[in-house]
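Figure 2 data, in text form.
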Amino acid sequence: MHFNLPRMCVLLLLVPACASGNAQTGEPWVVGRVIRSDNGMPIEGATVELDQAWIATSNGQYPTAITDRNGNYHFPEMNAAAYRIRASAEGFVWQTYSRDGTAEGQLQQLGETTHLRGIDFRLKREAVIRGILTGTQGESVGAGVSVTVVRMEEKEQGKVRRRVVNTVKTDASGRFVFAKLESGTYFVCVNGPNGFNAFPDAREWYRETWYGNDGSAKDGKALALKEGEEQNDIRIKVEREQRYSVVIWPSGPEDQPKPDRYEVHIEGRSHTSTQEPDSSYVIPGIPPGRYRLLSVAWLGSEYQGAGDTTFEVTNADVTVHVRVGGLGEIQGIVKSDAKIPAGVMVGIKSHEGAAQGSNLDATGHFAFGRVLPGNYEFKLLKNPAGFVLRSVRCDGPEVTPDTPLRIGDREKVKDCEAVLGTDASAPANK
């Protein structure tokens, strides 16, 4: 075998030289540091991820970097895109970087000319909840039962929303662990809340139960945790219950093309639904109680109408017929004790989740077409500084959260009057 030694030496020398040149001239796209929030010490071995709008690579992994002994990390050249940057370490809570403290500020654009330095994280120590589920005789429930940790958040008009923080499954001993929790007050729920992530096992269903061995969230026992605190060995006793299927037959709206499909949903429940070959819809796993069913008809990508009805589940599967009504209209005018500024937009939102917005025309009028049947409130979507929505009346009565505007099958309401005010302290209709 013949070797051209001078040529080989030249090639071997050139390869590391090129690699070294790239390392010196290539600028990292993201650079930062991860430290502890309580004492400012660096965290070695922390993981920093670049989450590209929740799209992982083919192996299910996000691009990651590991911090060194000084807590430093960096990412080399990446694909130009918008990313969320988040960090965590063993025993600490995940943190997502935001340039302004908002959810919108979490999205960071990276590219050849957009590099980020000083993307630092101050991680808080995790709080932990550990517990076990037992049956009515103290026996372990075994593996696979869903347990959820929940926080209560106050929303508009004093309403409280249950926000699911995390869900885990019990192990073979019936034990569960919630880690990486921030400091705060938590509630623990088995097979809920309201059916969230609840599935039967080989012996069917366990009843939804809150820690404190209560069937309702209102009287559930709160767990207040400080940073780094652990709540161990909480015990929840659960019992079996029968659950049933709801068979739904939607129809309508009349005098319109036949819908391609219907959406069906039981208000206040988390559940699945399937369409059967006979055109009915089935929702399984509903416990006894009184419920409200909502249905929306769709033709292609456009909704055709909506309807609702109430029904009760007792001790057997239930068949429910729901009539879907057609689309309505809402029209009106905005008045004010001062000149109405440009750019005002009025919005409507139903208690069922439908929403629209309407700009005012030159005379202050607004109009909403293709309005699904339902109960509606009004609000300002574009609210000029110093202006508030004082009141709205439609057909005489005032529209409030407690007395919403009811739109029925193909109903047209054309005499709404919305009053704007310049007093910032005046009550606003939100």
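Caption note: Helices lie at 5-25.
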